[in-house]
Amino acid sequence: MSGTVPPTTGHDPAGPGSPAAPASAPERGAARQPWLVVGPALLAVLGGVAVGMAPALAGPVLVGLLALVVMLTRLEVALGLVVAASVFEDYLAALDPRALKVLGALAIGSWLVRRARGRLHRGPRTKVLGAAAVLAVALLASTLVNGAPDGGTTLLRWGGFLALLLVLVDTMRAGRLAPASLARVYVGASALAAAAGIVSYTLGLDRRVGGPIGDPNDFAFFLLAALPLSLAVRRPGWRPGVWDVATVLIALALLGTFSRGALIGLVVMLLVAVLLRQVSLQQLTGALGALLVLAALVVALFPDLVTESLTAKDAVADQNVAERLQLWEAAGEMVLDAPVLGQGPGAFGVEHQRWLEELPVSATSDLDVAHQTYLEVAAEVGLVGLAAFVAMLAAGVRGAWRAWRRDGSALASAVLASLVATTTAACFLSEQFFLPLWLLVALGAVLLVDEPDEPDPED
């Protein structure tokens, strides 16, 4: 065989019967997905027509559509926005009562769009999601047995938070959203909300720090969850002063809420942290000293305002305690009447007066929550639902505990501390329909990294 190469010509070396050369990857993509070309062109034409016909409306509409596309295609952006917006719920409600619900629906829709292309990860299901599934079944069973006393509104709220929990866990486990990044978003939003609440308080607009969350007790619950996280997300060398300011703002606002339930949760959290050696006595002493200095500074700067707030709090303290005891007793009676599946989602707010009238002391308040998360859940969904709810919280605590013991992770330690604080405060507040518990449970589940996946046979 000779080593000469036949001369090339200007003609196609392939004969008429030869197969055509394979198309390049971009050509194949364009052939399979013509909408990538047609879609933007069509949108450009429609946008130009809209600007010509209604220039005043076209701009906001196009911006809104662009934001919608981003949220539906960038799952991590959608979830970060939901987490940040949850701390400003009442501010958003003033613009539109459906604003936060729409953001949550967009985040879930973004997850569905991504999930339609296949699983986000190959890991096994977590115990948190298993408990959440049992809770969902209990909610449906209770609704079928009792009906929907409030028209199904409470069932939809439960469904929204359960879906958000699933999306958070699935997205973080897939690596599309780092737990630390989500924690920073929450801390940053909490610090901004705390600053807004402090400004509102110092201007005399509120007797207690509330602001973005109208009820100071609920606002305190958000801040209580954020306080340990603010210490964990602080990174030396990356603007640590910013996170120090965030911690100070959150701590100040938390004290300014005058929420006894949140303060009890804070004390329990500190005690557990010392017992578990998460912090030393020296560090605890320093933290308490810093809190006292901050409190003294506020009293010195605004003595009349603080005195007025304490006086107003004392004036209703005894009445609040009596009413809460009556509400707890009513919830307990509701559980005894229907221990398995409860009275139905939303039943406490609609029907608890029936049980109050049967008690020795009649409550004068028209509060529609039990001010006790666990009793309210048991009254509405029964002991089955309560067991599933507590199991879900316990799974989050377990995940954070094991991750901290295994890796010494500062974030896992902070999530554990936040869960201890919030689950304690939930004994005095109804917080099942606010983000902190669900976010912390999701973080606890994800921080406990699963065993590596088994490789595929072809790997």
TrEMBL record:
Subcellular location per the Swiss-Prot or TrEMBL entry: Membrane
Q: Which Pfam families match?
A: Wzy_C (PF04932)
- Give the residue ranges for region: Disordered: 1-26
Molecular-function GO terms, alphabetical: ligase activity
Membrane topology per the entry is:
Multi-pass membrane protein
Q: What is its main location?
A: membrane
Q: Where are the transmembrane segments?
A: 35-54, 61-87, 128-149, 155-173, 185-204, 245-275, 281-302, 377-397, 409-428
Q: What is the recorded name of this protein?
A: O-antigen ligase
**Organism of this sequence:** Nocardioides marinisabuli
